[in-house]
Amino acid sequence: MKKLLVSAALATGLVATLAKADDAIDLRVMGQPMATGLIQKNLEQPFFENLAETSGLPLKVNYKAADTTGIKDTEQLRVLKSGMFDLISLRLSQVSRDEPTILGLDLVGLNPTYAAGAHTISQYQAVVDKRLQERFNTKLLGLWPFGPQVLFCNHPISNLEDVAGLKVRVYDQNLAKFVESIGGVPIPISFGDVHQSLALGVIDCAITGTSSANTAGWPEVSTHMLPIGFQLGMNGYGINLNTWNKLSDQQQATLQASFDQLVKDIWGYSEDLYKESLRCNVGEKPCDNLTSYDLVKVPVREQDLKTVSETVMKVSYPTWAEICDQSNPSCSAEWTAAMKD
Q1: Nearest alpha-carbon partner for 228 in 172, 189, 182
Q2: End-to-end CA distance of the chain, in Å?
Q3: pLDDT grade, residue 37 (50/70/90)?
Q4: For the whole model, what pTM was predicted?
């Protein structure tokens, strides 16, 4: 009888252990909006849909694109902190009003190239991650760019100075201040509303990445494109710390490795898309993966490049530092210390 009881106890323990091992961890994911294009469609969504299988982790992933949730992208950090979603593809400029520290990753003029953006991330990501963990119970799993954010107008322009007096769609306060500094009128409008706003003349110009604009049909309601990269369009993956802490150390390492690979893939794909979308938007070949349009490609002057480059210390940094230090007194000092290396 004693042996039977011991055997039963062992069997019960084994079943319980197996059941625990097989228990799936729910992962409610908010991705990028579908309207933003091929990064969301070809890399991000398939990654999450196959994550349980490719990682071997006990995950039950429920992925929803942001524009199918009814939730504004400006609310993403609050939503993540609340636990409504476990993991979100954060639109960093859009959530920066809740945490201005984030904007230090992509000040206007700071990241004119992909290489510059990668350097900024290597220096400053840890600072942003620490702040998000403290204030929003969120861990950063990785950062990536949509690509250079350029100017589209339905009004003839020949250089950056022609923006003076025009109404320009912006997506964060740093970009708004820059547009003001060159004489434009910044208008904050969500990405999904830009096409109609350009068509109706609510705005004259709008800024976004070249591939996102192509996918969203902006060239249908624009005439000119000025391909100067004001920002790099940084985005990131954030996971609720409660969800993260459900994982063992080994599981955390496995999940982080999966995101490291995804982010690496997106960086390469983003640069390829940028080059192709520059061609497609103005009717040049080859154009195999996007829609071909016939925008006027405005020549980039050295003076315009100089204006954007000089805006970092003249406009974007001081404007951001003042705002950020109000909510995070050590903000600008931490940015300066991180970026000096």
Answers
A1: 182
A2: 72
A3: confident
A4: 0.86
